[in-house]
Task: structure prediction
Amino acid sequence: DAGVTQSPTHLIKTRGQHVTLRCSPISGHKSVSWYQQVLGQGPQFIFQYYEKEERGRGNFPDRFSARQFPNYSSELNVNALLLGDSALYLCASSGGQGMGNQPQHFGDGTRLSIL
Amino acid sequence: DAKTTQPTSMDCAEGRAANLPCNHSTISGNEYVYWYRQIHSQGPQYIIHGLKNNETNEMASLIITEDRKSSTLILPHATLRDTAVYYCIVRPEGGGSQGNLIFGKGTKLSVKP
Result:
């Protein structure tokens, strides 16, 4: 079975641009979460979506937004890119509403570099 | 902030058991203990989770102390491919922001020939 897939795998942008990252969850999973991982740190929670609605948000500025589609795939959008946005962006999916007893399964991420 | 404390790094000989400790002294009754690992340039891989009882699957065993204030992840026969950063995470039962994973810095496990 296919796991969580993310595209693109690598991306280079310049400051001030915007970017859209895409995620397809494991078949049957309805909850998608996004994380940011800067070099040398553990992943940090950005958003969680379930049934096309935002169910959780981490401590990130409004430049970050996301949405979930009827097929449960998701997009993460970042506007007005800053150098500090350079990171690995990870998508994770889980069954149900992402409750504590349901593991999240991660894709291999999109490596975003800002020049 | 992460609610867990792990050693920064550990070494293990290939073929031997790797025992990775984790302290979570402030864990609440409805919080699960999760373990993930991350091999360089890949996304975190789910290993195992538990609430109160010890758990075992094809990858590892999770031993949780009776007071739930600490746990140990056991890889019974470590191989070179088990070299990775291992994250111990406590996660509430609720969903949404409560259900997200809060990662610390983890333990860098190096399996040596």
In short: Residues 80 and 111 of chain B are 5 Å apart (CA to CA). DSSP finds no helices and nine strands in chain B.
